[in-house]
Amino acid sequence: MSHPLYVVDVFAERKYAGNQLAVVEDAADLGDETMLAITRETNYSEATFVESTSPTDGAWDVRIFTPGGEIPFAGHPTLGTAYVIREHLADDPGDEVVLNLGVGRIPVRVEEVDGEETLWMSQRTPEFGEELAHDDLAEVLGLDADQLDDEWPVQVVSTGLPTIVVPLVDRAALTDIDLDRAAYDAVTGDRDAKNVLAFCPDPHQEDNDLAVRTFAPGHGVPEDPATGSSNGCLAAYLARHRFFGDASVSARVEQGYELDRPSLLHLEAEDDGDSVAVEVGGSVVPVVEGRLL
Q1: pLDDT band at residue 92, thresholds of 50, 70 and 90?
Q2: Is 3.10.310.10 the CATH number for 127-273?
Q3: For the chain, what percent of residues have pLDDT higher than 90?
Q4: Active site annotation includes 46
Q5: Do domains 3-123+283-292 and 127-273 have the same CATH topology?
Q6: Angle CA 53–102–269, to nearest 5
Q7: pTM over 0.90
Q8: What is the pLDDT of residue 94?
Q9: What are the φ and ψ backbone dihedral angles of 198, each rounded to 5 degrees?
């Protein structure tokens, strides 16, 4: 049985930028091993499989795979899959699509301004985990200790997929990253957090606020060009630690420049003192329509 297959670029302002995603429709008949094999065949950081041909209790059943295996949540697959569902599956999509993922129901809303659509996902309430030693993460990233900004903590944060958030002093430090796999394995081996996000307030484009790189070799992704889940963790971190001097965050974040896949993510967060509300948004550009034979 063949299946509709789509490729979209997520967090992209044009084709062949952002983070690629393969979306397979009508995938309920595919087993775990087949889904993993398809993901490895496409060779993107993730592929998604829409198991339902119609929503169940208002949500679409979706599974997300990396080349390393299934994961319960990821950002760019959530937005990209919601886009494909709106365009090709939903009879009357309106301005919201709800996905039923491993972490539960994730709503995606569509905002249109001057004919341009931005998709926004509401992420789960963040959990703030342990703070790690700056020296340990400097070793993981192959940097000198003084290239990490010790004014801010290195911390594990999760909105569904735990991420180690690492503040750097400038873009030179971001560019200098040379991940040490042995040090990475030593830090992440006994932890659920396999994603490492490094950021600095020194972007390439003056309209943006931060530059980011994300590494997840533990999930089979050496470096990711745009990471919605980890940037959701970053948004929560920025709000909780008042990085911009306020409990509210509205930031433009660039990623993927080192991979020649420039990406733009919009972060919104609000810390009310008890919990942080997080939204991550971006554009989706269709690239391929076909069939998986």
Answers
A1: confident
A2: yes
A3: 96
A4: yes
A5: yes
A6: 105
A7: yes
A8: 84
A9: -110, 140
